[in-house]
Amino acid sequence: MLKIACDPIYAHPLPPGHRFPMLKYELIPAQLLYEGIITPENIFSPNAVDEETILLTHDAGYWQQLRDLTLPPKEQRRIGFPLSAQLVEREVRIAQGTIDGCRYAFKYGIAFNVAGGTHHAGANWGEGFCLLNDQAIAANYLLNNNLSKSILVIDLDVHQGNGTAQIFKNEPSVFTFSMHGDKNFPFRKEQSDLDIPLPDGVGDEEYLALLKDTLPSLINTHQPDFIFYLAGVDILESDKLGKLSLSKEACKERDRFVFEQCRSRGIPVQVSMGGGYSPQIKDIVEAHCNTYRVANDLYF
């Protein structure tokens, strides 16, 4: 069964003026329901992750400032919006949704978080609309509970997963791989275990060739028993922030290739959706829905 964590912003709405562009997170499951790819049974609403699990990944002082809404204004500006209880509530539920997704991935092979992909949050900072790093929290949860011994993070958002790289820079059990726009945010990048920086304008053929040349050998070499996949669709040519030139068809082929590599080896994969900033919301939703369609075709 395809299991999908819903975005908790809709169960816990933000006050007027604080709802940054989140419409896609509502429209993605609505479109999948309309097409009959999923039913309400496929969707689950996560609770809040506990502090003990957060502190496996994030520094206590940083978390306490988030929790108590005392993060300095400069750090709030780095995140990109004013801190509020609703925003923190959303982040702790997103993190738990990714942990729950791991459990479903062990059972069904794959699971999704409609939100998530908060890869700019480091151990002691938030950045780029990311307060807590959902996939890093989930990876540390798996390691701490002896549910995994070797993890691969595949980050194909157009922006480097700088927070994830920083969190795991001294953790040999987690291999971080980021293929991203070289001249794009964040402008101060961290060092992943493997970074592939792409020049502006890279298109379908070059992008897919790089991925297909890299990923199989990466998996074969490091032998992960669990994979996290960040499936941002801000690689599209239509994306106003991405600076790459991929078609929707190539983005869909990217997802298919990643899933085929996981499925053929029997490696469970948790998927967080990451970014997408095309001017037309229909383009964002269609590209994200393709990720679910491909997973449904391959796994169910």
Automatic annotation (TrEMBL):
Keywords: Hydrolase. Residues 23-290 form the Histone deacetylase domain. Pfam families: Hist_deacetyl (PF00850). Signal peptide: none annotated. It comes from the Bacteria. Belongs to the histone deacetylase family. This is Histone deacetylase. It comes from Mucilaginibacter aquariorum.
